[in-house]
Design brief:
single chain, about 200 residues, mainly alpha, 11 helices, about 0% strand, globular
Length: about 200
């Protein structure tokens, strides 16, 4: 979602669609929750401050991935601090955005999510909403182009390993040829393995 990266893609492959995946959007949402936690930590004093301390990783985790003890700790925190609860619930509800397959439904859900921010007075979440609106086309492209993000991350990892091994390439065409060969070799290996 970095602007120079988007501009580079438009220069080198102008006909491609940029698709923003769930992981990177929720990473920004987690950072917003962490900013709310930090602000509440400094706003509170005494025992309430001790309760907020050390809960960063719990707040960054999904509710579904927590065991009973961790959920109990979060519920204790939420009972004493409503702002952190609201920010956490907003982050968790944002993950539902990628369950939609129709652009209109996805857009309506995102609009209703943004409408929930109206009276919350959570500046980091409002900043997140502005960022989502700025990148709306790339988010909606997820509905238009269903891309398995795991495969893309694997290809990116292979290209990064290729760049590290080569310690830099002077010729872009040679680098692209090496990357294409790397992808073709892996594909041929998988086809041969399934055939056997």
């Amino acid at each position: 979602m970095w602007e120079p990266f988007r501009q580079s893609l438009e220069q080198w492959v102008p006909e491609c669609r940029i698709v923003y995946d769930k992981f990177h959007i929720l990473q920004h949402a987690s950072q917003a929750v962490d900013e709310v936690r930090r602000a509440e930590f400094f706003r509170k004093g005494g025992a309430a401050r001790d309760l907020v301390r050390g809960k960063r990783w719990l707040l960054l985790s999904s509710w579904l991935n927590l065991d009973r003890g961790k959920r109990r700790q979060l519920n204790t925190l939420f009972a004493l601090n409503r702002r952190i609860l609201k920010a956490y619930l907003l982050k968790e509800s944002l993950s539902q955005l990628w369950n939609y397959t129709y652009e209109g439904a996805m857009l309506r859900y995102l609009q209703s999510w943004i409408d929930q921010l109206r009276w919350q007075r959570l500046k980091p979440m409002e900043k997140l909403a502005r960022m989502l609106l700025d990148h709306l086309d790339g988010i909606l492209n997820y509905c238009r182009t269903k891309v398995p993000m795991g495969v893309i991350e694997a290809v990116n990892g292979n290209i990064k390993a290729l760049l590290r091994r080569g310690r830099g390439y002077r010729d872009m065409n040679y680098l692209l040829l090496k990357a294409q060969r790397l992808a073709a070799t892996k594909t041929e290996f998988l086809v041969l393995q399934k055939a056997a």
